[in-house]
Design brief:
Layout (H helix, E strand, L loop, with lengths): L7 H10 E11 L16 E12 L6 E4 L4 E7 L2 E3 L1 H4 L4 E4 L5 E13 L4 E6 L6 E6 L21 E6 L5 E4 L3 E4 L2 E4 L12 E4 L2 E10 L5 E10 L9 H19 L8 E6 L6 E2 L4 E5 L10 H17 L7 E2 L6 H18 L5 H16 L15 H6 L4 H17 L1 H15 L3 E2 L1 H12 L3 H8 L7 E8 L5 E9 L10 E10 L9 E11 L3 E3 L11 E6 L6 E2 L3 H10 L6 H16 L5 H11 L6 H18 L5 H18 L5 H13 L3 H12 L11 H13 L5 H10 L3 H13 L3 H12 L6 H11 L5 H4 L2 H15 L2 H10 L8 H13 L5 H28 L1
Parallel strand pairs: 1-10, 7-8, 16-17, 17-19, 20-21, 22-28
Antiparallel strand pairs: 1-2, 2-7, 3-6, 4-5, 4-7, 8-9, 9-14, 10-13, 11-14, 12-13, 15-16, 18-19, 22-23, 23-26, 24-25, 24-27
């Protein structure tokens, strides 16, 4: 990986020297099928011929082009043939003595990928068909064609592709096939990382979006959606098109800039590393968004959010692109915010801000307390930094900050700023100041101080209410205390709402907890008095950041915390309830609330949770609390309580409901005792039933994963299940279940297949890692703690960055949660100060999670006394 890196300084120097007029890229993908290219263990390759026309501001100077390929056949610069062995080092092509105007032609053999980076090749086990797609962000287009791989060297692209007979090929522009060659219309100027090719025998459906603007202008956008043929029976393309059209309406209504890239195809592709990618005109998604079994409304909401997130990128990211990855937030933060904003206002998922508060912000809070936290505008030194910066700060915290910005400048000023930003910078590249300047124009507010507080500093503040009552039992003074971590002491200005809640039928009653008073104020500094609430009747619950206007950790006064312990499920407003759950989880992670208390709250109140997305998060948090934060001596008791509670709620849930399905999945995840496993077995074979519960193929695999983990489902059972579900999805499930079996030989084989071999694809690497480390098998995987620290530097050096990240994150010995493991981690860090910064970051993050878990365990153990 180090030889493939590119520094910010190098990119700046190249951008100052070069400007690109256009690319012509010719790919021959006919080798994707048959036996060609698989000889002698060498990678299967395809021919890639690239012509780049570019200018040089300093004739006579030298630079380089980017290409990662097994071999280069020919290189020509301005008509002069260059010796590939002299100018190509495996990742760069040296370009010396440039002219004012240049033409570079590179003929290379590029490798198909099995890691989801570059041109990924997938063979469907169901029918043997081959499917291709590209994935580049941040810098993998150089695995497919020679280029200048940095976001600020935009250019128009023309692609042509030769493909096997019977295939269809898609790219960013509209394509036509002539004499076996697919030729695509030239794109607008775009960055290399958002070019795309999808090819294969995909199932493809079409629709059309039409729009007539106020001036009478008519816009027609061809829509397409595709997936593997094996998933066609499950493909609900009508719903995908519905969300797409609703999103296009929303963005046209608010952006005043018509969709700029012609057609709009959406490809659902196999073995995808990301959720989706915003390639203009050809968005790619992970195919798990096509649901093979019954899923809850939350899954459809998640898909809608991702569809709209990627659509927002057509403007924030594709039309206007950051200069370098420091300002990645200029696209990802906006897309994350706009995904929820548009979903709530334009689709059936009107409770999307509840999911945002409970799910997305949870990701942000965790990332912002890691030692690797960084400002939203980050310091990205190189491409390895950039790869790791697609994190909870850049996405979810950035989106939360933008939600705060809308409250700060006003909705219309924010949207008008976006409109001006698009028009002034279309097809160009921007930095932070370009956006701030238009927001200052439209809002009249000084954006410099706001930016310094929210975009240029790291860390999350906590806000705690202080309530003093007078002799009549009314509020004498209510104040909000703001605190920051010692490592990031910035106290920020917050626009917040403070809500006062009480039971509707009076103090001590049994009715719902509802808000009876609210004040919206600016909190600034260590303590802010909320004068508007003086004189109000005494509350049972004070909720700081009601309505979720700002980004902060919510804390409670003692009385409010007592109210939540007694009646959290009585809060009538779903968003307020979700905010309280999130706050309680943060208390647990901060070792301020014992894990067993959080589990108790879930057991008592999760069954009353109406929002299915919140319920699913509660299940995930309860599992995490038991695995990482509960005292070791209480884990068995906690697991038994969760399993009993889950089975009780499963049997009580409405027949056929999404809540029933969610409790079934949770029960499967926590079942461990002999009786619980017998229930799962009975549900599989039909001797046990739950009225209305459909045990479809996906749920069968969920049950089998637990049964395999506890040694009940052996290799033969799993082979039989794969025969029943002989698909790509079934294979991933089987591989995960096989690695989950409680056997030393199984763990050794799983470890070797991931660490010592490159045979597995990215999807099967992920499945194996997930199956390898099971909370019930701590002793079984303990020997691998030492091996982990022995191999990670080699893995990082030898494998692609995606696989390196998967191994370093996924195999960290987090289940060996002891001071000894913490010491071993510190020892590795001390001995490897010169290791790749991105690798050290991953280990530092894992160390922080481990230390946080140990603090939580100490808190929980104290509760037992």
């Amino acid at each position: 990986m180090p030889g493939e890196n590119l520094s910010r300084d190098e990119a700046q120097e190249r951008a100052a020297l070069l400007s690109v007029d256009g690319y012509e890229v010719s790919l021959d993908l006919r080798s994707a099928v048959g036996d060609s290219g698989d000889f002698g263990g060498e990678p299967r390759t395809f021919r890639s011929v690239t012509t780049i026309r570019f200018r040089c501001a300093d004739p006579g100077a030298g630079s380089f082009a980017d290409l990662i390929a097994p071999s280069v056949t020919a290189v020509s610069l301005n008509g002069k043939d260059l010796d590939p062995s002299e100018v190509f080092d495996g990742s760069r092509i040296a370009l010396d003595d440039l002219a004012a105007e240049n033409e570079l032609v590179v003929d290379a053999q590029c490798a198909y990928s099995r890691t989801g980076e570059g041109m990924h090749r997938f063979v469907d086990p169901e029918d043997g068909e081959v499917y291709l797609y590209t994935q580049y962000e941040p810098a993998d287009s150089r695995r497919v064609f020679a280029n200048f791989e940095q976001p600020d060297l935009k250019a128009p692209f023309r692609f042509e592709v030769r493909a096997p007979e019977g295939w269809v090929v898609w790219s960013n522009g509209v394509g036509e096939q002539t004499d076996g060659v697919w030729r695509f219309a030239e794109t607008k100027p775009i960055s290399t990382y958002i070019t795309a090719v999808v090819a294969g025998p995909y199932h493809y459906v079409t629709d059309t979006y039409e729009r007539v603007f106020e001036d009478g202008t008519r816009l027609e956008i061809p829509l397409g959606a595709m997936c593997r043929k094996g998933l066609a029976p499950y493909f609900d393309s009508d719903d995908v098109f519905l969300i797409t059209k609703q999103g296009l309406d929303f963005f046209h209504d608010h952006f005043d800039y018509p969709y700029p890239f012609g057609k709009y195809d959406q490809a659902f592709v196999p073995e995808y590393n990301l959720g989706a990618m915003e390639n203009p005109g050809l968005v790619t998604f992970r195919e798990e968004f096509i649901f093979r079994g019954k899923v809850t409304r939350a899954s459809y909401e998640r898909r809608a959010n991702v569809v709209l997130h990627e659509m927002a990128h057509m403007w924030f990211g594709d039309l206007v692109t950051m200069v370098w990855w420091d300002d990645l937030w200029l696209k990802e933060s906006f897309a994350d915010f706009m995904g929820s904003f548009s979903m709530v206002e334009a689709t059936r998922f009107t409770n999307g801000w509840v999911t945002f508060a409970n799910n997305r912000k949870s990701w942000a809070y965790r990332a912002d307390q890691l030692p690797s936290t960084h400002p939203v505008t980050a310091d990205i030194r190189d491409l390895e930094d950039a790869k790791l910066n697609f994190d909870g700060i850049t996405y979810a915290k950035g989106a939360s900050v933008l939600k705060q910005l809308v409250a700060y400048v006003g909705r219309e000023a924010f949207l008008e700023g976006a409109r001006r930003y698009f028009k002034r910078n279309a097809y160009g590249n921007t930095r932070l100041g370009d956006l701030l300047s238009v927001l200052e124009e439209t809002s009249g507010r000084d954006m410099t101080s706001w930016s310094r507080a929210w975009l240029q500093t790291a860390g999350v503040n906590s806000l705690t209410p202080q309530v003093l009552l007078d002799s009549d039992g009314r509020i004498d003074e209510l104040a909000v205390v703001q605190e920051a971590a010692e490592s990031h002491p910035e106290l920020r200005p917050h626009r917040v709402a403070i809500g006062l809640y009480r039971r509707v039928n009076g103090e001590g009653g049994s009715g719902a907890l509802e808000r009876y008073a609210r004040a919206e104020v600016d909190v600034d500094g260590p303590r802010t008095v909320v004068g508007e609430l003086a004189g109000a009747e005494a509350p049972e619950l004070v909720l700081v950041n009601d309505d979720d206007l700002t980004y902060c950790k919510i804390r409670f006064d003692a009385g409010s915390l007592d109210t939540l312990r007694a009646g959290l499920g009585d809060i009538s407003d779903p968003l307020a309830r979700a905010l309280c759950w999130s706050a309680l989880w943060n208390l647990t992670r901060d070792a301020l609330l014992p894990a067993r208390d959080f589990v108790d709250l879930v057991l008592r109140f999760a069954g009353r949770e109406s929002d299915i997305g919140v319920l699913q998060m509660l299940h995930a948090w309860a599992n995490s609390a038991l695995t990482h934060y509960a005292a070791p001596e209480w884990r068995e008791t906690g697991g038994r309580l969760l399993a009993e509670g889950a089975l009780r709620e499963l049997r009580a849930a409405e027949a056929g409901s999404q809540h029933q399905l969610t409790w079934a999945r949770f029960f499967a995840s926590v079942a461990s005792g002999e009786a619980d496993l017998a229930v799962l077995q009975g549900l599989l074979v039909g001797t046990e039933t739950v009225d209305g519960l459909d045990i479809d193929q996906e749920l069968r695999w969920a049950f089998l994963e637990t049964l395999a983990t506890h040694g009940v489902a052996d290799e033969g059972v799993l082979a039989a299940e794969l025969a029943r579900d002989d698909t790509a999805s079934g294979k991933r499930h089987q591989v995960r279940c096989l690695a989950a079996r409680p056997s030393a030989a199984v763990k050794a084989q799983a470890w070797a297949s991931v660490v010592e071999s490159e045979v597995l694809s990215n999807a099967l690497v992920e499945a194996t890692i997930t199956g390898f480390a099971r909370p019930s098998q701590r002793e079984l995987v303990a020997p691998y703690a030492t091996r982990y620290f022995e191999v990670i530097e080699r893995v990082w050096a030898e494998r692609s960055i995606q696989i390196g990240m998967d191994v370093v994150r996924g195999l960290f010995p987090s289940l060996q949660d002891s001071q000894g493991t913490l010491d071993a981690t510190d020892a590795w860090l001390a001995a490897h100060e010169g290791a790749a910064p991105a690798l050290r970051r991953l280990v530092l993050e894992a160390r922080d999670d481990l230390a946080r878990g140990l603090r939580g365990q100490a808190c929980d153990a104290g509760a037992a006394g």
